[in-house]
Amino acid sequence: MDGGLSVFVGNTIIMDPECYKLWLDGFTYWEAANKRFQRFTEAKGTIKIEVIKSDTVDNYRMFMAMEKHLRNPTLLEHQAQLQIPTNLRRIYIEQYYELDPVFARQILGKKLSSRNRKDLDDISESTNIKLRSCRRQYDNFKRVFKTVEDMQGPIVKNIQKNFLISEPLARKYAAIVFFANNRFETSKKKLQYLTFDDFCYCADRMIDNWTIGSNDPRTEDLDADFDRQFLQELRELKFLANDKDASDQHKSLMFNSLKGQQSPGITINVENNFKNLSRAIISIAVDMIHSKDLKDFFIDVVEKITEPCKQAHWSSEQMSQFLKLYTSCSARVEGFQRCQVAADQSQNLSQGCKDEHSTVLLIYYWT
Amino acid sequence: MPGKLKVRILAARDLPVMDRASDLADAFVEVRFGQATEKTEVFRKSLNPQWNADWFKFEVDDEELQDEPLQIRVLDYDTYSAHDTIGKVYIDLNSLLWKDGVSEISGWMPIFDTMHGIRGEIKVMVRVELIEDANQFRQSSCGVHFFSSSRVPSCYTVQAIHGFVEELVVNNDPEYQWIDMIRTPRASNEARQRLFSKLSGELQRKIGLKVLEVEGNAVIGYWQCFDMEGESGVVVRGIGTAATLKKTAAFSPPKDVAKDVNLLFDDSADASTQVSPVNSRQPPSPSKQLPQSQQQSDPDLDASGVLGSSGGSGGLTQRAKTPKLMLGQKIAMMEYPFFTITTFPPNFLEKLGGAVTARSVKLLDRIHNPDESETRDVWWTEIRTEIRAHASAMGCNAVVGYKETTSIFDEICLLSATGTAAIVSVTGVKETAQTQQIVLTKSLDRMEFQKEQAATPPLTESLDVPVSGSDASQCRLCHIPYNDSALPFPVTLATCNLCRKWKVPDVLFTTIEPPEELVYTGRGCCVQARICKMKKRAQGEINAALISDALPFIEFELHRQLMNRLKVKGMNALFGLRVIITVGENVLVGNAIATAVYVSGMPPPSTLKITSKDTTDKGERNLKWLQQKLVDTTARNRDLYDLNSQVNSSVESESTSHGSLEEVHEPQLSAGHTDTYVIELDDLEDQKAISDMLEPGLPQGFYSCSTDKLPGNVQMAHHLQMVTMMRRQNLSDANTKNLNNTFGEMVQSLCFKLRTNTPCCLCKLSWDLFLTEDNIAYVWLTAAALHVKENEKSPLTGSPEPEMMFPIEEVTDSKKAKPPSPLDKRMFYKRESFWTPPVQITPLSYIPGAVVEKYLGNINIFFVRECTSVKESGGVGGFLHNFVTEVNAIARSHVLSLGGNALLAYNMVDFVLMDNPHKNQCQGLINVFGDAVFVDYKGLTDMSR
Fold this sequence. Notes:
Number of helices of chain A: 21
Oligomer: heterodimer
Order of helices and strands of chain A: EHHHHHHHHHHHHHHHHHHHHH
Structural class of chain B: alpha+beta
Strand order of the largest sheet of chain B: 13-15-16-14-17
Structural class of chain A: mainly alpha
Number of domains of chain A: 3
Shape of chain A: elongated
Helix content of chain A: over 70%
Radius of gyration of chain B: 28 Å
Largest sheet of chain A: none
Number of strands of chain B: 33
Largest interface: A-B, 48 and 63 residues
Number of helices of chain B: 15
Radius of gyration of chain A: 25 Å
Shape of chain B: globular
Strand content of chain B: 25-35%
Strand content of chain A: under 5%
Number of strands of chain A: 1
């Protein structure tokens, strides 16, 4: 970054938003200067390239000075070194933590280790995102993960508090932390069609409903871990598949509800597939207690639920309807309540089922 | 024992990791004042230690309080080896000694390490309980206020201006002591910082004593410099204007015990030899030149004040008994009737003569006794005497806007003094300046070479009421101070356009702010001149002689350029003129900047004419073409700066007054000097010079001036911010054009950065130059970017052929690419609304749109910063960027700790850089000072709250 010596310091920082974007995107100062110059010329501006170059150098230097603080945004608020307008601070932080969904998708579920960081060039090549940008994002993930990993309380709030980013963005980070923590398998070919946002949605639902924090915000444990007790209880669902009576009752309850309203198409579909589907859903739920199976949650859902239904040409509306009924009817199956210890837990369980279903639904929807 | 210093260490935050194993630190704090040291407990395993220590108390002399900085050192505890230093904080206690000043310094201060920069912050509280020392033999001067602002601070009224005060102290530079060979760079940097801080305190104390002697209570327009003379040591100089100020609200000026004049004078002289290790005496009277003056120490004679007006020895120490008047008869008694301020109370100035300059090249003596500052005093005395002589030659009784600078290279020291000769109001005694006899014998020592030049053109003021000039008492402001039959220098006189009675010069160069009383046409702009001159490499006296000989040529060239550009702009006066000549190994650089403006009372500039000896067809055509261009540009500039209305009327007035008797002089006077307006076109270089003049100005929406305010029909609306910029330029080919390009590019870059803030004015634009041994120039630019509102009359017009045009690129782009997110919108929106930073730093002595509620103290800090991993920290550029950022940050934190929110009259001076790329090492020095104030932003939406 030489190109003649040029230094610029303002009492309050002067940052070019466009240049900041280019820096975040991982362009070298030289590339960025050329890009900016090009745009200027296109916009009919007359300016010497030297001016743009030096301005870009100044900006980049400023960014680097700021990066130290951006990595620790709470520090940025009180640090004395740079005077940054209050309203801009949040924007700069937000932009620094902004992530590329394509890139984040690749990282989802991976262990955020320094070994994986070394492999970023592959991802950079395949996603066409500059390596520098990949590194920044990866480091952001890792930093957020490390910070909130052992924290108590709601994960999204923790991220917001420690990194001063907006809620939607914090939710994305929560998803990344959640996936990294539970090491979900997402890289299988069959799952490739799912985008980062899809997984984000799933993670969001899971965090909301299946973790310890989701039941009791006062619980002192982390939001990123599944509620073991809940998983344990899920095992009780076994009887819905294993107990012939319960299974039949469930099935007939569903048919009754279906008959009232729907086209015959779905009825036949359900008729043919109910048993297999029900079994699949339940086995996934039951196995979630084993961390190895938990990792394969998404692949299982796709293989055992989504794909068969696809083959049966269910529309997403049909799938949605099926799952809704499946949940609501299961609650009415005799004996279902019997196995529950407390009423709230049962509610919770069915809520859990519902969310699993919406998750599945989503996965299905995007097929 | 008249003082108790109390310090409390509360906490620190964001400390660096000092222990690799735990990623934490075991920090404790050492508080040192003078020889006494106190320590806090060690706060283990934390980067955010909370000591909450009790108050540390130091019983101290008030003299010590003024001289010594409070040193707070943060260390990392180590059981087995020496504790590691994390960093230090220096706190100047002088602000706590102001009588009506702040009661404590309290806040988060950045911990600064000379090797690593800022490393976290520490929260401290400092208080001083002062028992005033009324002892007449005292050496302290607590309570004298120092203001960097070169005007009367806005929440004070001035009761008396006592005149020039100066002092210098000399010391060895720790960097060049033998011990530096064996100690760490950090230790030597710290020794330097500590010493410089102390010298600065000592200097202010001594100046304070002088102020008290004349019964003043403040120094305004205070300017302090460190002259790094290398091997021969360091010289700290301070100049200022002593005054008695009264706070507009409730403020009681310090009472001084009246003392016998002579006794006091003797005592102080004696005591200084005994007490202070570094002795700086009263400057020896220029007895050689003015043999009479020595006998005039008798106060009785002062009252008569006729001959002694220019040369009373120790004039500053002799007080008039009742300094009730603004100046009173004292002007005649001042040894040096100089005023460092540039903006004056109404009716202070009577007439302006013109810029005066004196320069002198000295060889730094190799054998140097740090206890003797006399050599330097003698040097400056010579220069001042010369300036005084220039001023009286112009028929003036004072020099205003006075400033002293140095440029040191190796063993050569170029001393410069500059100011504006003026007549200042003298109530009571009839001014006798015209009759003064100044005998200046130029007795050059073997080693001394003097070069002087009076940058010439005089000036005039017109009145605030452009009515008929019949009122003589108002009119006197705008007339030449000298006798029009015995002009001190070549000048063309005309009749004042406003009063049409008295003589005014055609051009006026001054170093002061454009006075409010004057009437201006249109608006002003910056003009600059630059020259880079090759010099043979030489040693010692020969070198000094070479430089000495080159100086007049540089001055002349700068003057010529300024004059020509002024004409092309269609203007007739320069304010805020600043000429800097920098000495290098085999190159000399002259740089001048000023604010050009059209003073309504003065005649319109004549059109420039180009002549050429080249009589070939081609030559003639070329000449014609150039001449036409010149005329066009001038006409365009008249439009651009809105000068036309007045120009016409003044032409008329000239013709109407043609019949008057006074007019007769004009042809005669101008006859010999018409060449001022003629540019001879002899070679390519001249042609280049002309094309330089035609260069388009700033991009649309930008204005610039070298002064605090842009004169003319533009209103400063809001202070955006202060900017500092630096470029490096190789000058080994001594190419003025390259240098011009660098300067031009810097301004362009600045405008580019500020493009979303137009209309914008770059105020107090100033350049600084530092030359290294291999002819590398470090060019600094500082300016305050102000948002302006134009008065309705003239619409915003940019230069017709701007070199740069800034399309509104981001907005259109983001629209094209994708609809702007709410985030983007916010980013653009913020540029519209003004954000008021926690601390506004400005080189100006005011903040537009804000009112200074209180002056809290003078900030004066010297920084040493070194880096031994330059490449890793982004090269020299990265190093300097960090350094300047840190300097600003620390200055801001000092303001905050005093309870202020702005730093006025901020100056960054004495920049030195030593770059050693082979060792990957780099060292920089910077001295900053300014006035910490609390301002109230009236009518501005403060978004920070």
